[in-house]
Amino acid sequence: MRIAHVVRRISFDDWGGTEQVVWNIAKAQKAAGHEVRLFATTALCGKKSETADGIEIVRFRPVYPWWPMPKSLVDELDRKGGNPFVPGLGKALREWKPDAIHCHAMARIAELCVRTAEKTGAKSVVSLHGGGANIPGVEARSLKAPTRGLLPWGKAIDILLRRTRRIPEDFGGIVCVGEDEFEKYRAVHPHVMYLPNGVDCSLFKGLKMLDGGRVSRVASDGLRPLRLLCVARIDRQKNQMMLVEALARHPGMELCLAGPVTQPDYKAELESRAAALGVSGRVTFTGALKPGSPELLDEFAKADVFALASRHEPFGIAVLEAWAAGLPVAASGVGGLGRLCAAHPGAAEVFAPDDAAAFDAALAAIESRLAADGARGMKEAGAAAAAEYDWAVLAARLGKFVESLPPGRAGKSD
Fold first, then answer.
1. Cα 320 to chain centroid, rounded
2. From CA 409, how far away is CA 102, in angstroms rounded?
3. Where are the alpha helices (DSSP H) in 82-221?
4. With bands split at pLDDT 50, 70 and 90, how would you rate the model's confidence at 219?
5. Is 216 exposed, middle or buried (0-12, 13-18, 19+ CB in 10 A)?
């Protein structure tokens, strides 16, 4: 099967969860014998095209339909959102003639994919990566803040082109990373599947971890500080502020925040808060680290505990990586992330979102296990959990779903 994956952005130097999912699925499909090509915008990447691991990536310049559009705003929209027009993308898809168009974006890009699939007879499928079924209202409004007050000239073009698609309902199939979205859309669409994120456990084999039994709340006793790791984009959704504020309550703790900055103003807030609390020297921002890179693996190796304090989360792929790396996990019990941890209770301590006391209790429980036996039981449970989410297995499930879809038309009940 010839499969076209369409994603808003993919840059190996500035990586996010969606890109990681798309790339690993594409690699697994290629390994299974499919012909795979990625179509993306040039956001955060100056290259128009490249080939990596035998997979061609073709990019097109996005056009953000607001006025005025200073470069600083372009950079911000490149990182998160933007709903751009992508001239040339539709033509490139038609010329390549894929058997299936798998879209990993919404709005204008998604509508273009649906229209192209109907014109070419390709199967159409869309993946919902962002937990849209449970994004808090405050955060949803913050996503629109960068363009508030600007002239939305793109709406006039949408009206002229009669773009009235229902997204994602008009796709032939819908793939949901989050169970909340799966429950929402399977009630209104005939072809919906739940497909969790995955992990390449082989990347973490042989990783030499620091001795977790040497941790302590208080650094003055001569033992090294407890080192927390959070791998997530710097974004209000991920709620790194909760972890920064925890440093003030735990003088024997350090924090590493690894991930691309999708909301620069939020990073500034984190830095300002750390300075106000006097903990700046115990917070490290690494920036974006490519999955599987020596730099990222080194951060896992140096950590004692993985912490993810998200306010909402459709799944939590970074938790799978932490388990594969042999780390005990403290995670907020929200959405798919909470269900993932609940399915593997021995591998994680769960706390209520934005509840500092609950987070401290979860951390204390993990520290007690670290002091007793290096948290051996948690690490073994985590490794077993991670092994259930192999990318090759997930890609095979996705392949069967796509093959079952009707070609060349939107998904409607039979």
1. 12
2. 14
3. 89-96, 107-120, 137-144, 154-160, 179-186
4. very low
5. middle
Whether the Cβ atoms of residue 275 and residue 245 lie closer than 8 Å to each other: no
d(CA 275, CA 279): 6
Which of 106, 146, 102 has its CA nearest to residue 124?
Answer: 102
In this prediction, residue 413 carries a pLDDT of 40
Look up residue 274 and give its two tokens: 């750390």
* 212 pLDDT higher than 80: no
Residue 339: is its pLDDT beyond 50?
Answer: yes
Cα distance between residue 112 and residue 210, in whole Å: 49
CA distances for 126 relative to 7, 106, 143, 177, 244, angstroms: 10, 8, 21, 11, 36
Domain residue spans in the chain?
2-198+391-403, 202-387
Yes or no: say if 215 and 370 are a contact pair by the CB < 8 Å rule.
Answer: yes
User: What number does CATH give the domain 2-198+391-403?
Assistant: 3.40.50.2000
Cβ proximity of 55 and 125 under 8 Å: no
Three-state secondary-structure class, residue 47: coil
**Mean pLDDT calculated for residue range 231-245:** 96
Q: Specify the higher pLDDT residue, 288 or 178.
A: 288
Tokens of 314: 């459709």
CB 217 within 8 A of CB 367: yes
Average pLDDT of span 215-228: 62
Q: Which two tokens stand for residue 137?
A: 């209202």
Q: Is the pLDDT of residue 384 over 90?
A: yes
Q: Are 319 and 327 in contact (CB under 8 A)?
A: no
**Best CATH choice for the domain 202-387 from the list 2.40.370.10, 3.40.50.2000, 1.20.1600.10, 3.40.50.1220:** 3.40.50.2000
Are 260 and 233 in contact, with CB atoms under 8 Å apart? Answer: yes
Kindly tell me if the per-residue pLDDT of 213 is higher than 50: no
User: Per residue in 9-44, pLDDT tens?
Assistant: 998 877 777 888 999 999 999 999 999 999 999 998
**SS3 state of residue 279:** coil
